[in-house]
Amino acid sequence: MTTALQALERLREGNGRFARGDPSHDSRSDRARRGGLASSQQPFAAILGCSDSRVPVEIVFDQGLGDLFVIRVAGNVVAPSQIGSVEFAAEQFSIRLVVVLGHSGCGAIKATLEQLQRPRESQSRNLDSIVNRVRPSVQPLLDTELRRDPDALMRHAVRANIRAAVSHLRHGSQMIEHLARTEGLMVVGAEYSLETGVVDFFDGVPPPG
Ligand SMILES: [Zn+2]
102 C-alpha vs ligand 1 centroid, how far in Å? Predict the structure, then answer.
C-alpha cells in the first residue's frame, strides 16, 4: 500500500518531469504493461479533476496505465457519484491520497461567475446542476472588492471551488471520514496552471519536514 505522503511525492515528481518538458519514456503504456494489468490494478492515488481537454490527469502527472484512479467532471464538482467513486477507490484499492485538481482559466468557474453577474434564463437543467454546485463557494467573492478585478476574481473563485470540493469530500462520506481518522487517508486540493504546467498543492498538505 502507498501511504498518502508517498503518493503525494510521486505526483509531485511526475508533475515536475512534465512541467520541465522531460516526461519519462519508459514502458508505462506499452503492451506488456497492459497485459500485466488486465486482471488487477493497484492505483496509488485518486484524482477528481476537471474535464478540460488541457488537463489530462495522467499526462500532467507523468503517470501510466494502472497508476491513477481518475474521476473527471466539468468544474471538478462533487456530487454523490463522485463521492461514491472515491469511496470505491479507497475501499477496493486501499488508496490513501485523494486529490481535487482544479485549474486556472476553468470554463465551469467562468460560466458560474457570468451566470451570477448577469443571470440569464437557464438553457439546460443538466448544465445548471454543475453551475449550482460551483455557485455556493464563489458567490461570496462577489460581495468583496474582487468583483472589480475580473482576473483576481477568477483566480480566487477557482481556489474557492477546489477548497469547497475538498471539504465536501472530507465530510460528505462517513467512510472517507473514518479512513482519514484511522488509516491516514488524506484529501488535498491542488491547482494546475495552464500556463506553466505546474500543479500547486495548496489545501490540506502537511508542511515539509
Ligand atoms: Zn475546468
Answer: 7
